[in-house]
Amino acid sequence: MDKIKQLSLSQLGLYNPQRLSDEIVEDLFVVRKKYFQLLMDKINKEKANSIPQHHLFIGQRGMGKSTLLKRIEVELRKKESKFIPLLFPEEQYNLSNLSEFWLNSLDAMADALELVKGKEDVKLIDSKVKELQKIKDEDALAKQAFQFLIEMSKKINKRPVLLIDNMSFIFDRLNKSEQHTLRAWLMQNNAPILIGASAVDIEDTFNYGAPFYDAFQISYLNKLSFDELLEILNNLAKLTNAQELLANIHEEIGRLKTIHQLTGGNPRTAVMLFKIIVKGFSKEINDDLEALLDEITPLYKARFEELPTQLQIIVDAIALHWDPINLEQLRIETKLENGQLSPQLKRLAELGWIEKLDAYKAKGSAYQISERFFNIWFLMRRSSRRQKKELYCLSKFLETFYGDDLHEVAINSLSVKSKNINQITYKLALAEVVTDKNLKKQLTDLCHNELKEEAKINPDIYEKFGLLNNDKSEYLKLEKKYLSQLKKNKQDSNVWFKLGYLYQSHFVKDKEAEEAYLMAIQLNQEDSGSWNNLGNLYWHNLKDSKKSQEAYLKAIEIDEKYSLPWTNLGSLYMDYLKDYKKSEEAYLKAIEIDENDSYPWNGLGNLYRNHLHEYKKSEEAYLKAIEISKDYSYLWNNLGNLYQDYLSEYAKSEEAYLKSIVIDSKNYIAKYNLVFLYRDKMNKLQDAENIYKELKEEKGFEDSYWLNKTLFELYKKNQGVADEYLINALKRIDDKLPNNTQDDWWRFGGVVTKLGYGNWFLNILEKNEFNTILAPYYVAIKAITEKDGEGFLNSKAVEIREPARKIMEIMKKY
Asked: Which of 97, 240, 467, 648 is deepest in the core (most CB within 10 A)?
């Protein structure tokens, strides 16, 4: 078996990548690749006798600094390299002066040579080190140790690359005179190249006049993007031979985005998260968060307890405050005077525990914990019941806020009339996997209505595709029939196809559906339809985007004039893989094959509107889709949203919504959009009320109903009645904003603040504890009402600040 598939969970190093083998280090290294390659290119471009360019990268704890240094060591140790990597321990506790630094360098060289069987050279270094240690004069010892390192590098014909973790520790231990000497030696021709890492900015590298001013090319390791987190999780699943987990990973996108936000985009935490995923996601996100906290407790507890007592008191106060805390607040919490606090805060910043921000409505700086997941851990292990509740509420809010991309895909699918049975198949597959019951019903009803139309032309369509009615017994009979037919003739590829479709659309038998489609393909190599359906199955049911992409491409390879897999590929690229250029290419290819299919035109309209922000192109695409399927209500609704929210062409928006409603008088989404347009954009309050009277408290949209009712009263300045209606809306959402009505809450917040009722709204949220339950939403509204909105946002914990800023930007559009 391949070594990659033998990697066990116990081999996934969390704290010490130096214990991992070279092969595992290479296999695990999937992020920071661009920066790694940049460093390697710069190192390799150093000429034999050059004055070296030194590098320093800065990143918080857990951001992958040690792993990056280890990866560089592995690469430089390869036979063709002209360098020898000298990797130092993270903490060089014996270091007290410059001579110890160079003696440690010689030890690191001996270690490196021992790995490549350089026994004689190792003996030579050990012997020389013993001799050097007899020198009493530290300056002379440092000089001779450095000179011997240079001699050894010439002997082995490899230039040393010093790989030093925790560079700030080195600068702390060396006095200014030694730092000047070290810089002078490192700036000589053919000197060792220094690659350093630090958890904090080092003043000695950027303060003018400091020994190492401008000596390093400095870079920063920022938090992982969500895509990079997914890349790590996918890679770990493959390396541990646990590809079946890929479905779980992609099924819980909202949950993973929440954990990504709360953990601060930390690579180390990503590995811990993978171990949690292996055990299976819990029903509640907070249980997964607790499991993650348990996993990291030994590390955080030990690190905190290593701090001196006074530093523990200060960290305790900052962590429990959660939001950035200013000096006056900190003085009150710790009962320490400013003269005591200042040097200790400086020390904590140097150690990477805290970072400074501008204080909000206070003099001086504010302070927050640098490693955000440590702050979360501390709150959960040390805080009051109230603070724990705040954190739990935040996790549930974020899970909904970051949501499930499938919901948007399903909504978009309502917008297009199916042109053929394959498109109906696609929608039914979506209906099986969306979690929103109301949306599931809409999709299912839509498909059955479309099938009725199809049956007028092709009466056998129901039996042929196993689409009978909602009576489960009928599907069981059909399954029995297909299995009986296959018992008589296993070579009938068409029956295998129909069985696969039956399992995909009406049973929770995804693996059986896959096997049936693959059997159909095995029997008929030219079966592009099975490949296309397999692509849908892999995407929507099995959550394997790579296999889905491969299946669609195989369908295209078999039949290059088959437009549907191109359309599906466009949707996959847009809604799941976030590759918008490829999505555009796929949609355009589908249109080239069949320009009279409204489905890719609508997809292209969504792509241009929501992702590429090319609104005129979006308009052209929607209009073309409507030209093809002019009696399709949701297409007109999409066009209306474009005109209202992006182009501010309100008369055109009104016309589009009205056409949508004429086609389908039950399209309450279009009606709600028209209500917002009339009331909040066109100042047609009476027209808005007339449309609103047609609406009822529809299941799944109860909160939207009461939000609109509230706004009507606010326009009439009936604040007391509005109070009651808003509380009704809040009662309908429990402890999170529903996926399908989030945009109504953003719009409500935007309109309320513009009407001057922002503080009224905040007051109701506070009285009903929704300032905690919907914390980022509350903070976003509060920021809009504040004179210095950005300053207010920066006074809040990062975990709340970042989603609040996104929500605020959305609300400002309204």
From this structure: 467
